[in-house]
């Protein structure tokens, strides 16, 4: 009878140690290294993610920086290699596999200014002359220069400006930019 109780205790102890090591311990280390978005509300980021999916950005951009030895992502300055913990709150899990455009896993760390993102969404060739990214003008309002006082339009290069008009981001453009800037994996698991 004593042998059965020792065996039962050993099975239970092994199970408890395994559960602690597989579920509780990783969560402790994951939570220490997580950097929360500081500029935007969860609603803005969630709506931006929805727009990111709706506009098909995932078809040309991935959100997974390859670690050293698996490509030149780190050497390009796209940030550290992605880790499983970077995606723990991402629903749906749409990491993308295409690399037609640059990886966006750390775009918030590389380009944290809203104006750059607005210009790149409105007219990508204003940022990079050879860009093959399509413009998304429906995310912007074109209004007369007198309309909506106090709001400055995009600071586009002269050849992309519309005389007498200013270009203002819509709420959808603001949400999408909030989502893009929130993509910052610079802090890893420590």
TrEMBL record:
PROSITE patterns per UniProt: CYTC
Keyword Transmembrane helix: yes
Domain Cytochrome c: 43-184
Domain of life: Bacteria
Coiled-coil stretches: none
Keywords: Heme, Iron, Membrane, Metal-binding, Transmembrane, Transmembrane helix
Entry annotated with the keyword Iron: yes
Transmembrane segments: 6-25
GO molecular function, a single term: heme binding
Signal peptide: none
InterPro entries, sorted: Cyt_c-like_dom, Cyt_c-like_dom_sf, Cyt_c_oxidase_monohaem-su/FixO
Protein name per the record: Cbb3-type cytochrome c oxidase subunit II
Organism annotation: Natronogracilivirga saccharolytica
Classification lineage: Bacteria, Pseudomonadati, Balneolota, Balneolia, Balneolales
């Amino acid at each position: 009878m004593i042998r059965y109780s020792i065996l039962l205790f050993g099975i239970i102890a092994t199970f408890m140690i395994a559960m602690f090591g597989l579920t509780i311990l990783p969560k402790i280390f994951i939570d220490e290294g997580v950097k929360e978005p500081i500029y935007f509300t969860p609603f803005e980021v969630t709506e931006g993610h929805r727009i990111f999916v709706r506009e098909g950005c995932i078809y040309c951009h991935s959100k997974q920086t390859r670690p050293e030895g698996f490509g030149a992502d780190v050497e390009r300055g796209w940030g550290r290699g992605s880790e499983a913990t970077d995606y723990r709150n991402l629903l749906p899990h749409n990491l993308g596999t295409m690399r037609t455009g640059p990886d966006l896993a750390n775009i918030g760390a590389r380009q944290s200014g809203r104006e750059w993102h607005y210009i790149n969404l409105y007219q990508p060739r204003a940022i990079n002359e050879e860009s093959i990214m399509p413009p998304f003008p429906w995310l912007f309002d074109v209004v007369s220069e007198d309309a909506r006082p106090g709001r400055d339009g995009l600071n586009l290069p002269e050849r992309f400006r519309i005389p007498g008009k200013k270009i203002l981001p819509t709420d959808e453009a603001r949400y999408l930019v909030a989502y893009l800037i929130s993509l910052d994996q610079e802090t890893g698991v420590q």
